[in-house]
Amino acid sequence: MQVQPYNYKNGTRMREITIFSGNANPDLAHQICTYLDTPMGGSTVKTFSDGEIQIEIYENIRSRDVFVIQPTCSPVNDNLVELLLMLDACNRASASRITAVLPYYGYARQDKKVAPRVPISARVVADMITKAGADRVITMDLHAAQIQGFFNIPVDNLFAAPVILDYIRKNFTNDLIVVSPDAGGVERARAFAKRLDAGLAIIDKRRDVPNEAKAMAVIGNVTDKTAVILDDMVDTAGTLTEAAGALIKNGAREAHACCTHPVLSGPAVDRITDSELKSLLVTDTIPLGPEARQCDKIKVLSISALIGEAIIRSHRGDSVTSLFV
To answer: Which residues belong to the active site?
Structure first.
């Protein structure tokens, strides 16, 4: 994605914005700072021997616009507590505005009651972030858009689509079909298919227990097509690998996949390696583990410029939505 950065050096705004990062994804935070042409704010995140987390900020942030970059990926609870404590530290240091930047929003899949006497965990996390001192939230490709309504503060839900679409246009043939791995992802897949002028197919999926899926049928003609499965995240990769197998079985020439959030827990990498998938395109909202980094099928795109541009526009009061029009 090509975006033109705002030149902070021509004014005094450089002194008004400060970026902090926890331990969840420091590489992404540093790339965002490089895009913004601003240094990372000085801070430390330590862990005591009993597991307690200690936060210390080393510079004056009074009356500054502060952005805390921290995806709540694995280890989810540690990274979430780091975020909450950093927000509280910034709030007590008299920052003028604090934005929690969560490239990946943990607990997003628990956004509704699916059984009696279960929590709506995504709402609980939203309440904690707000109470800890966040004035607004920037996140990316929420698993469920209604999570924005769990906050009583502004939420900018960014989309990795511009970055992924740019890669697909440059690296895939015209004989393309976009595939939704389930009925819930049809709207997302349809939007991609429209922008790529490609066909659309849907996998009819049955899920009997959590993290285990069985692809039953392919709705749509995928014969002799290059199929690209589109999802917001890949966790254990059960759905993805079953879908790839079903596509090849139904005559697809190749099966590829794209997702924003590479959770890749449990047997995910082994399943991807042994599957019919030719490639899996992911972004760096979540850092890859050692196994995933060694997998030749997994390719990573950076969304640092996208988040950096959203930070600039948020700081200046410009439109963030226009990034995706």
So the answer is: 205
